[in-house]
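INFO  loader      accepted 1 record
INFO  loader      residues=82
INFO  predictor   begin
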Amino acid sequence: MKGTMKARVLMKYLAVVTAVLAIAGCAAMVGTAGIADRSRTGTIHDVQFEERMTPANLHVRHGDEVRWVNRRSMPAINPAGM
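INFO  predictor   done
INFO  writer      dumping tokens
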């Protein structure tokens, strides 16, 4: 009986610790602040949609990655329909 009770307390403790660590990890990644700007293959470029798309011109190389970030309150719509 005592062993079962200790196991339950330990499981509850582990669940609380896991939840706290998960919340702390997610809170550290506000926007793209917690995300790397380099990958194994090249540079990561952020293209942000606000009133205008920034940067307007972007030069990428083979292996670079482009991250599309919508900072508007509504969906970013592709006028070409693609």
